[in-house]
């Protein structure tokens, strides 16, 4: 690691914050000295932070600050990018998921992901949800599968809207519905962690509000990490917030504290709109 | 009108600019329309040119008659097996020829006349009749209505192709004075002056060609012609028949020595047509017969089957290979120098002239691997190599058009890379891939040069049964028909082109259908 800087301070901060602020939660994912390189260019510098269970962690920061790249480390999606290299340790339940022995396919069934642009498969609503459980062999019968589909759609708050047209293509839904379908699709494989990469940036305010409500609901069962451009959204939905800048983790803490009493000058400048 | 202030949008300068821009827009539109009109008219011209040439090959003149299938001739003692009957061309031909001799007794006068009359029907024309009888021996000994194609030259003449004739209605004969046997003199029919003037117009006063006078089943040649009288030589029939029917003069400007058929043969053809023994029928043998050295007997069946067998081999090799190569290169291969080199080479390969692939096939497949010459399997392999780059390029483009978000979505729910590709990307890319594959196949179907080099230009009289039999392909057949000298090949060639084009159109329709039916949007 040739870069030092805020990383050490953040590590101390993370450990500190983790115990003090959220008494009910404990770290689900513990990242230590995570760096990401695209070919020779380093995009994330030595980031260490803890992500708590049954809470929403928001990653904020200006464009190109590495927050999405960091998010993609958590389910090894960076593996699919040519030339991307991730160093450091990411512990989930005591296992280093960044180890070459970990099967990224298995990992991704435990760490679901929702993308910026809704990307339902061009198949029926039913098949969109059923695809994950099918390939993982999680169901034995058609009835089980029906139950999983219904449960997932209910949890994503979409069941009432689509229960009569499950055979219609997922792409025929509205943008907000498509995004909730993608969330249902992620839920269907019973993940422990759900990663959301700017899930509302392609949606209108009403659809955004629905997704935010849904995130708040899902927090009770899952560990959620959300990347967002909107500081208001981070403030509304998250319990913990991490501020990234130029690939570095600048500050991490309880959302209230970050927004009302940031410790770092750069954080304050960003949330007050002085840059970004 | 009030004076515009300086800040107005409508100033003389702005107006000038606007005018210029509108003119440029209009010019550009005009270029576009001109290009499309040009392309469309070229296409129309092509279709019309080929269509009109091929049209005359859609029908064929046949000699049709009731023939008694004499057992002694068609299946003599000891030669009654199916194969022997089929091979007994001579017997069947004798039957047909005898029928012609009975029809035109005047031909029996000399050996030369008999020979001339025999030429009306080709010896091999009875082959399909022989096969029919061989398949159904119970016909032997019975009377059967048979149809055998007339010789190509007569067919061409009767269809108005070559030699050209101009017919003039002469009306009734008036008086016929018969003096010597077979010679006569007619006079005072109003039609004769018309014939004289038409003839002098056609022959520009040189009077080299012939004028035949037909009436009923009789035909006579006009030896000397003046506006009010004509000297006749009877060619077939009787003068009585001539006297009692309305006369038609056939003016043939081309001198007898310069044409493949004599006046006598034309006279017989006209008489046959008058009697209803020469009939214009649908030219089905064009698609049911194999190749022949005689245009009236030739057909495209062997070439169509050869082409289909070749295409089958090509499809079996090029489509799976091309699609899997594309999937590997696009979805799995790392991006490095080697794959870049491969990519550049695939693109270059698509531009290699097809004859080079023919040379490769000749030296490698025929030489090194000793595969059979002229066989669809070799042709198919060569054409597969030829279209492989096209299929790969089209398939890659189609894979690339599947948005990456679909791949990420599949990976994010825990699908492996393989599952993401085979469950999601391939089904979405399939219509585009098949479009590319079928367009490649269409190119292969029309390819001639490589097939020439691997010997698929051989004369093939048997329909190939398997990919290792000797065969030829449609474009090669067109090539060899087009290089034949006889006039009758011209419409045949055009008709074969129409068949090839129809196959191509069908393939393109399939492409359009696949695209419409399976293309999905996201």
TrEMBL record, chain A:
It is a peripheral membrane protein. GO terms for cellular component: plasma membrane. Transmembrane segments: none annotated. GO terms for molecular function: ATP binding; ATP hydrolysis activity; phosphate transmembrane transporter activity. The keyword ATP-binding applies. It comes from the Bacteria. InterPro entries: AAA+_ATPase, ABC_transporter-like_ATP-bd, ABC_transporter-like_CS, P-loop_NTPase, PstB-like. GO terms for biological process: phosphate ion transmembrane transport. Keywords: ATP-binding, Cell membrane, Membrane, Nucleotide-binding, Phosphate transport, Translocase, Transport. It is found in: Cell inner membrane. The keyword Transport applies. Part of the ABC transporter complex PstSACB involved in phosphate import. Responsible for energy coupling to the transport system. This is Phosphate ABC transporter ATP-binding protein.
